[in-house]
Amino acid sequence: MSTGPTGCCGGNGETLIFTCAGAAYSGQVANRAGVQLMEQGAGSLFCIAAVAADVAQKMDRARAAATRIAIDGCEDHCVRKVLEKARLSVEMHAVVTDMGIEKKPAQPNMISDAKKVVEHVKQTLGRAGPPARKCCG
Ligand code: SF4
């Protein structure tokens, strides 16, 4: 599934969602939110591990995307760092622990916390409007 305008200069106009899917609770919240965002049509969930591994076919698609959303579980910002290391821009960055969700809470509530992250991302995307086109103009 893709969203956004059809790109030029070889871009495909896609919105890709990368989550850290970390072992910590907040990393799992990040991934759950990414899955739900995809189900709601906000973009396509994409493998951050494939970017870290520099898998050629996956890198082509990641480079061609118009918008890359990074959802990190905590302040270590692993997704953002992997994307930046691969010289891929991050159009939107969300951090689960910046939303009042603990990394390892005593009483986790996955459904409520994932929903909070989904709403945050959707609101931020709504405020930002359509992504700036990376175009040869
Ligand atoms: S951002 Fe935090 S939760 Fe996610 S993989 Fe990195 S250390 Fe783990």
Structure characterization notes:
This protein has one domain (15-123). With 137 residues, the chain is of the alpha/beta class. It contains 5 helices and 4 strands; from the N terminus they run E-H-E-H-H-E-H-E-H. The protein has helices at residues 25-39, 48-52, 56-64, 78-85, 110-128, and strands spanning 15-19, 44-46, 67-72, 92-95. It is 41% helix and 13% strand. The protein starts with 14 loop residues before the first strand and ends in a 9-residue tail after the last helix. The chain is globular, with a radius of gyration of 14 Å. Helix 4 links the parallel strand 3 (67-72) and strand 4. The model is unreliable at 1-7 and 133-137 (pLDDT under 50). Bound molecules: iron/sulfur cluster. The site of iron/sulfur cluster has 11 residues, from helix 1.
List its salient traits:
137 residues, alpha/beta, 5 helices, 41% helix, disordered N terminus, disordered C terminus, binds iron/sulfur cluster
Secondary structure layout plus pairing:
Elements (H helix, E strand, L loop, with lengths): L14 E5 L5 H15 L4 E3 L1 H5 L3 H9 L2 E6 L5 H8 L6 E4 L14 H19 L9
Parallel strand pairs: 1-2, 1-3, 3-4
Helix pairs in contact: 1-5
Iron/sulfur cluster binds next to helix 1.
General form: globular
Residue runs with pLDDT of under 50 for 5 or more positions: 1-7, 133-137
Bound compounds, each kind once, are: iron/sulfur cluster
Q: What separation lies between the terminal Cα atoms?
A: 26 Å
Main-sheet strand order equals: 2-1-3-4
- DSSP strand tally: 4
The rounded Rg comes to 14 Å
Order of helices and strands: EHEHHEHEH
Q: Structural class, from helix and strand content?
A: alpha/beta
For the biggest sheet, the summary is: 4 strands, parallel
Number of helices: 5
Q: What's the multimeric state?
A: single chain
Average pLDDT for all residues: 90
Structurally, how many domains make up the residues? 1
DSSP helix fraction? 40-55%
